């Protein structure tokens, strides 16, 4: 897993959607977790400790077998979390394409209208 700054995370996250990896599908998974500031990696520890007792760890990885899985992570302070989450959501909405709406069966639609 590669720990990067929040500024470096978003471009690398965008690149995950474009990459094709051997032995995997095109899904990208994002996980968030609150952790103590002292447990953050050396790259971001000084900034995290002065920001407060807890930070948000955000991980993203391209699904595939363990040999080819691509993982990145960053730590975001509580003050920066909402702004970062909005940027992350904008990237995800822009990159998710080809999702078809779920089809409702006609049988279920008739059953709900006749029961009233």
SSE order and pairing:
Blueprint: E1 2-3, H1 6-18, E2 28-36, H2 45-51, E3 54-62, E4 70-77, H3 78-95, H4 106-114
Parallel strand pairs: 1-4
Antiparallel strand pairs: 2-3, 3-4
Helix pairs in contact: 1-3
Protein model, in words:
- The protein has 116 residues and is of the alpha+beta class.
- The chain has one domain: Signal recognition particle alu RNA binding heterodimer, srp9/1, CATH 3.30.720.10.
- Helix content is 41%, strand content 24%.
- It contains four helices and four strands; from the N terminus they run βαβαββαα.
- It has helices at residues 6-18, 45-51, 78-95, 106-114; strands spanning 2-3, 28-36, 54-62, 70-77.
- A hairpin with a 7-residue loop joins β3 and β4 (70-77).
- 12% of the residues are buried.
- The mean pLDDT is 78.
Distance between the termini: 55 Å
Tell me the CATH superfamily: Signal recognition particle alu RNA binding heterodimer, srp9/1
For the sheet with most strands, the description reads:
4 strands, mixed
Compressed to H and E, one letter per element, the order equals EHEHEEHH
- Spatially, the strands of the biggest sheet line up as 1-4-3-2
- Strand % is 15-25%
- The Cα radius of gyration reads 19 Å
Q: What is the name of the CATH architecture? A: 2-Layer Sandwich
**Low-confidence segments, ≥5 residues, pLDDT <50?**
none
């Amino acid at each position: 897993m590669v720990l990067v700054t929040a500024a470096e995370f978003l471009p690398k996250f965008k690149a995950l959607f474009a990459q094709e990896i051997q032995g995997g599908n095109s899904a990208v998974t994002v996980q968030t977790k609150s952790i103590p500031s002292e447990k953050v990696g050396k790259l971001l520890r000084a900034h995290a400790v002065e920001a407060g007792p807890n930070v948000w760890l955000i991980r993203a990885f391209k699904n595939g077998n363990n040999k080819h899985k691509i993982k990145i992570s960053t730590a975001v302070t509580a003050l920066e979390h909402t702004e970062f989450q909005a940027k992350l959501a904008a990237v995800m909405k822009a990159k998710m394409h080809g999702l078809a709406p779920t089809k409702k069966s006609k049988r279920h639609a008739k059953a709900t209208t006749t029961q009233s």
